[in-house]
Hints:
Chain A is α/β, with parallel strands linked by helices and 535 residues long.
Amino acid sequence: MKPFLLSVLSLLLLSGSVFSQNKVEKWDVFELTLDGPSSGNPFIGTTFSAQFSNGDKVYEQEGYYDGNGVYKIRFMPDREGTWTYVTSSNKKELDSNKGSFECSKPSEKNHGPVRVRADYHFQYEDGTPFYPFGTTIYEWPFQDARTKNQTIETLRSSPFNKARFLAVPPYKERYVEGPLKITVFPFEGTSRNNWDFSRFNPEYFKNLDESVRQLRELGIEADLILFRPYDKGKWGFDMAGQEVNRRFARYMVARYAAFRNIWWSLANENSFIKNMDDKDWDELFQLVQEKDPYHHLRSIHNADRIYDYTKPWVSHVSYQYYNVVKAPYPTAILRDIYKKPIVNDEINYEGDVESRWGQLSGEELTFRFWNALIGGGYATHGESYKSSPWISIGGRLIGSSPDRIAFLRKIVETGPTTGLEPIDHFYENNMAGKAGEYYLVYFGKDKLNKWDFVLPRRELAAGVKFKVDVIDTWNMTITPLNKVFEVVPVPGNRYKFMDKNKSAIKLPAKPYMALRIRKVGDGKKVQSDGRHELE
Amino acid sequence: MKPFLLSVLSLLLLSGSVFSQNKVEKWDVFELTLDGPSSGNPFIGTTFSAQFSNGDKVYEQEGYYDGNGVYKIRFMPDREGTWTYVTSSNKKELDSNKGSFECSKPSEKNHGPVRVRADYHFQYEDGTPFYPFGTTIYEWPFQDARTKNQTIETLRSSPFNKARFLAVPPYKERYVEGPLKITVFPFEGTSRNNWDFSRFNPEYFKNLDESVRQLRELGIEADLILFRPYDKGKWGFDMAGQEVNRRFARYMVARYAAFRNIWWSLANENSFIKNMDDKDWDELFQLVQEKDPYHHLRSIHNADRIYDYTKPWVSHVSYQYYNVVKAPYPTAILRDIYKKPIVNDEINYEGDVESRWGQLSGEELTFRFWNALIGGGYATHGESYKSSPWISIGGRLIGSSPDRIAFLRKIVETGPTTGLEPIDHFYENNMAGKAGEYYLVYFGKDKLNKWDFVLPRRELAAGVKFKVDVIDTWNMTITPLNKVFEVVPVPGNRYKFMDKNKSAIKLPAKPYMALRIRKVGDGKKVQSDGRHELE
């Protein structure tokens, strides 16, 4: 592996034994640097934290050892004004260090960390909606500088606002020899023969710091995967045992929680880590929950044994279940089961590799994305062409789905601010939006030549007027129809409204078509019949 | 309501102050009858139970007050040989009553209670597989004798081996006036003005006893629904409060647990009972779990808020979610989420009523049944024609789906004894059976004119030979093909085997077709490539 980029902050460290900023913008990282003992094992037995206060806001933030006698505390202030802090430690040099700093208002593109909104959606802490359109670049932090820069440039012009990647690389031949050989590992040591699992290697994490920071500067959420099973016994990082796992998780939280763009992904394909069971994951979840003062989003990405996402420390579902996205309605079912946002974080990848998880056409990946969104959830992209293994290394995108995902994202972002909600979803299959006002109807692979203008009764009133856009989701065209539809109840049917002239909409008998139906005029509200939704 | 049938046992009661059988067959009901105090309120504050022993088997079974100074204990012996018992009570007359009886071997049609088998399926306690093909007759115990007899006769010649029904009738006009007027209620009193929720009405439950017993004699599991929301404030049985609910659940368990065909359905559409939340249901589940010595199956039937079926006291999923059965794969997803048997207990009903839950064609209901089974789960029938409201009152069946369900049941019962397991189910959509040996491929509404003989690699070996039946699931025909298929790996594809002659199977381009593919000869086992299922 190439030498890591030196971060600006590590350069600043040279200036003295205590360093901190005087000023930081809201939701940026305030970093306090102290010199302390380097003897013994600073990773074990040294307690170090600070209490940060601003009015009635009080946070406890753990610090971390950064090597060479340097200790740091990173803090994310979430209120403007003066923050004061005081450190606590069982080491004299690190204890009772006091100070203060000013927190200024966030800059234009800084909306704070992402939170769950209205059970099934997300928003930034400042209230701006966040619709995750993620991508997958598992190993991007471990590539050479050229590839990393290319990844950054690709992301900059992509539709993606969330990136899933590994905190610890998978064991692969290319990281053991050749130009990408990794020489700096998360633990001290150079090979399985001499790991010291009681000592982290700060140099390793400085690279990861930079990766998280670069994504933050792009406005991309870092869906950081703490544990992974891809070791095949070669390095043994996934078999180090729960005590080491706990220490690792705690170190990661101390080091990264102050980055506003962090999402904690406890693991990728956790059930493939054979010496860990769900109780171990419960424990690590709770540790992260306890130690992260800012309560970043927390999930875990399943393999064959699905973790119980109803558990209270899980903020959202990070799913791998390809059949869920073969139609819109399974995602809607998952919403009702988990009562949390559903992110289909692995839906197979566009590509041409021999493994069937990486053989989707651009059409199929786009189709699955639409299904996830019409089901009231979200999805994550990945691309695995032999000539461009984006999901592994990043670099460039050559597939056809990203443009279509950008097109979909634009539709979603100009839709209801409440996100796409499945409409009348115990009976309907392919419709989301905001009942009464906005309907996105997706036909998937069905090749319809017409669609009767009939909508579920919910929230409708006789006389409400609509305009319609015909959307070709593959060719990325939006064709407004020069016509106004006005709804009346369907005679003899309690559940449906239709256009008063029984109009139908012509469709081109092609797959991947959709309709956007938006209210343009009010009608006369009819009394609800008070029936339960399931009737 | 018509006078209840007197049960044989209540007649026998006339013979003395203590009555019990000398002999009972395994898994039948041993009933001990004692005279005790009738003063005060025997339903409150009187403890009464017995310990039953046979070798190292020891059970504690609560008794119940049956009115007129009569106390009973019902016990289900599950081991042949001599059982002894001794009662305990805080009332002298009921305490320290001892005795014994002989338990003989079960008669031919008695297989014991139903248990969960291999996570996703069921079997009787004697090991006989049980494949639930349920139906819904919510109010059948509350009908006149003629209708009840008709229901029994209909069930006798039906494919149904499980019946869902209510322990307490819904409030409906027809039960308040006219020939079906209910005069005997679960609680003492005659109307909302004078219920005594501290006293049950034993007469009411004698009728229910008979209903459970009649189903048992037919070999039909009684999926007995303890609570229901269908009161609309008129009787108030669903608003009596958690203390009354607890007492009711405990009384029901004391009274019915000894019937081997009992399944506890804690509620129908529990979230529509507005003054109860999931914690109340948790409590009632745990009460039933604690008090039922035989651990009958326990579930709850959801409405809009889905109960967390992962909770440990839930034995299986009793779902209402129509979209789950619009394709096979959502049921397979539910298996992976809940890790329990999935019974789609409400999939809409065949019928012609105005409510959309009762407007399915026979074709559609049959289609949904097949989907549930191919997804590795089960389904429950219901019929709601205006001229014959089977789901409410029972009586006669006039729909077209029961014959098709009988046809499906026969296929399932002659299939793998391990039940239908979804095959390669993270990628496949429409295939269940036993990988390598038996495949049921269901095409649903797709109108194929041919199907290429290609199977997932899992458990296959080059040279394995198969014979194929073409099944018309609607017309109920099974057409064996006069041909043997022999599989070889598909070149360049890690995941598939095909017929060595690249044969395809002709299909009639109609909906609702299926294939049954059964191994008739072994091949040469090829080494598994050891890849994870998700790859």
